[in-house]
Amino acid sequence: MVFSSIPFLYYFLPAVILCYFAVSWVVEMLFKLVSGNGQLAHKASIFTKNLILLVFSLAFYGWGEPRYLFLMIGTILMFWGCGIAMGKAKSKGWKKVWLIISVVISLGLLAVFKYCDFFIENVNALTGLSISLLKIALPVGISFYTFQALSYVIDVYRGNVEVQKNPIYFGAYVALFPQLIAGPIVRYIDVARELNDRVHTWENAKLGLRRFIIGLAKKIIIADSFAALIAIFRDSGEPSVLFYWMYAFAFLFNIYFDFSAYSDMAIGLGKVLGFNFIENFNYPYMSKSVAEFWRRWHMSLGSWFRDYVYIPLGGNRVGKWRWLFNTCVVWFLTGMWHGASWNFILWGLLYAVCLIFEKWVPSYKKVPGAIRHFITVMLVTLGFVLFNGEDMAQVGSDFACLFGFGKLPLISTETIYYLTSFAVLFILGIVGCTPLVKNTAVRLSQSKGMGVVVAALEGIVLILLLLICTGFLVDGSFSPFLYFRF
């Protein structure tokens, strides 16, 4: 099940919201009536909400991955049990034992489900052997929920959070359906308080629904339109150098609007349910350096690797060569996290090289900001061409054609047709990657004469967007989010 689908929007989500608020309210009233203890009644309400979230989250996951539902449940119980064991451990040594056990098991699961065939393929290529591939299907979202659960046991070991003794609460955290499949990666420390006691307000619900509908529109109207152009490009019988550059920029916009849309929808749903998830994007294509880009892009993943890999390795508080090693390790792992393929590894190492250059060549900062912005966007664009290749052969072909080495014409009749057909979409993509629309809306809402008008129009626009998206979904085909495959 995906957010951008009729079953989710009009069946699953209304059922969740109705049960979440109505059933928990009934339970709270009954406890208050029977016990006369308001605090106990409130705790019963929170427990009911977490239980409902866990049940619906498992149903959400099981809808598309029924065979891996037990893997999800087993992961929850394993990490919860390791946390309990760490809490009862009487020495730091035993805590470390349980930490190592949880890390080995979780990384072992990733190795089996995500990387095993990749390793076998490379062993076969290097040795000439013919070891059979396992061909195990990748469980959707395993990279995301594994990293979330790992953050919990690491923070328990460090003493940053208390052990969660209630398996229902911990299960609700790991399986929480708004961000289960494609993030943001929510760390336990960020939602520990809200798991135990959260506040619901109409204002937060309104902001959450607005954020959700905007994300839905970004996905269906913009991201999926760029995806259609990419499909047309791959099926083209009349490619050209310019068409390859159209593809490169189409994917640049496609992956941003697709992934940021999921984050918008997850954050919006979180607000409706009483959670405040961290932001995952901050207009990354406005960056003037690769370092800035990664402070703005997939921020939850970047901060995870910073806090649990980079800083424990010594970060930048070490010698130059050790820092170089730390940087390469982090970006190698970042590439590997995205997928078991050499293009992902090279994509990660590309950013390591760029970051090393920016650090070791301080004069680069003196280059005018507009030029640095252009260079950054071009590097990110070419990086995504590498990222999106099905294999290294296709990557090599794509790069050759981009730079005129593919024996293609510079332009073709088909290219001109699609360039004019999708020109408005590209303009919309460019504007949507900047804070222009948001800043304009904020200024209008804060002005004395326009505030009321903007507030009234906002509701109408959101309803229209929901109706348009529904029309696309009724008329269109299944379109999962890009990051489902990671």
Write the topology of this structure.
Blueprint: H1 6-35, H2 38-64, H3 69-88, H4 92-127, H5 142-158, H6 167-175, H7 188-196, H8 202-234, H9 241-272, H10 290-296, H11 299-310, H12 320-338, H13 342-360, H14 369-387, H15 392-402, H16 413-421, H17 423-432, H18 436-446, H19 451-475
Helix pairs in contact: 1-2, 2-6, 3-4, 3-5, 3-6, 4-5, 6-7, 8-9, 8-19, 9-14, 11-12, 12-13, 13-14, 14-15, 18-19
Walk me through what this model shows.
With 486 residues, the protein is mostly helical. The protein has three domains: 1-64; 66-198, no CATH class; 204-485, no CATH class. The chain contains 19 helices and no strands. It has helices at residues 6-35, 38-64, 69-88, 92-127, 142-158, 167-175, 188-196, 202-234, 241-272, 290-296, 299-310, 320-338, 342-360, 369-387, 392-402, 413-421, 423-432, 436-446, 451-475. The longest helix has 36 residues, at 92-127. It is globular.
Label this structure with key terms.
single chain, 486 residues, mainly alpha, 3 domains, 19 helices
Brief characterization of the structure:
The chain starts with 5 loop residues before the first helix and ends in an 11-residue tail after the last helix.
